Amino acid sequence: VSPSELRELRDELQRFMMEYRFGLQEVETKIGILRDEFLLTHDYNPIEHVSSRVKSPDSLVEKVQRKGIDGDFASIRSSITDIAGIRITCSFTADVYRLFDLLTAQDDVRVLQVKDYIAQPKPNGYKSLHAILEVPVFLSTGRIEVPVEVQFRTIAMDFWASLEHKIYYKYATQVPDELLESLKDAADTAAELDARMERLHRQIKGSSAGQAAPVAVREIT
Ligand code: 0O2
Q1: Which residue puts its alpha carbon closest to atom 33 of ligand 1?
Q2: Which interval of the chain is the signal sequence (predicted)?
């Protein structure tokens, strides 16, 4: 490969990744607006935190090889939909679905795929709501549609998933059976905690209805 061909490839890769960064920014802005509006209108923030990432070139190459996809940009673009990814961590499961509904109801958002691992958890106990959304990005050359993978989960689901991810890496995918069982058990405990906290939250809301909410209680209407 000549130096000029290499430079061309580098520029093409930069442009390719840039589109996904812009897609992320669009979705982040939408989430930020929903969060700010919720706070202002309902004095309640359904979002605990948001993180985002564009897949690293190494991880992209690994996935292209694993899935047997042709290495050209057009094939990668049409086959890999999680190059741009956002994770939204909410307080409660009800907030997860509420945010999902609000985001996907926007008329410039196209829903390409939904995987509801909250309604149907993975066998290992993993829970999250995954959606591949396509959003428009306006470049100097015109409008492009960019897919963004959005993962919605609660704090408890996030806690479990990050620990499981670490264990999976530590044991290089050969996790001992005993540990797998404990992880599944922990996932059930996390789900129980989610349900209990949500019930408590509803009780507090119910008991404070009609009277001024104490400082620590925030109303959802
Ligand atoms: P990273 O580093 O988070 O990006 P595919 O995306 O096609 O390879 P699949 O199974 O069709 O795989 O997609 P799915 O089910 O939507 O899951 C993709 C992402 O969800 C993963 O991304 C993880 O972030 C998360 N995820 C799915 N299952 C699990 C799980 O059992 N444990 C944990 N901790 N996370 C999970 P990546 O690409 O693996 O990694």
Answers
A1: 161
A2: none
Structure tokens at 110: 């196209």
Return the H-helix or E-strand segment holding 198. Answer: helix 177-208
Q: Could you tell me the domains of the chain?
A: 3-155 (3.30.460.10)
Helix (H) or strand (E) holding 152: strand 142-154
What is the interface pTM, i.e. ipTM, of the complex? 0.89
Q: Which of 64, 73, 70, 67 is nearest to 19 (CA)?
A: 73
Task: Please name which of 18, 217, 193, 204 lies closest in space to residue 93, comparing C-alpha atoms.
Answer: 193
> Tens digits of per-residue pLDDT, 9-54?
888 889 999 999 999 999 999 999 999 999 999 888 999 999 999 9
Place of tokens 């806690």: 159
Give the model confidence (pLDDT) of 113-129 as tens digits: 999 999 999 999 999 99
Both structure tokens of 103: 């985001």
- Ligand 1 pocket: which of 62, 80, 81, 82 to mutate (most atoms within 8 A of CB): 82
Strand order in the sheet with 142-154: 47-54, 84-90, 142-154, 129-139, 110-116
CA nearest 20: which of 63, 53, 49, 58? 53
pTM, whole model, 2 decimals?
0.89
165 Cα nearest atom in ligand 1:
34
Question: Does the CB atom of residue 82 touch ligand 1 within 6 A?
Answer: yes
Name which of 177, 161, 164, 182 is nearest 118 in CA terms: 161
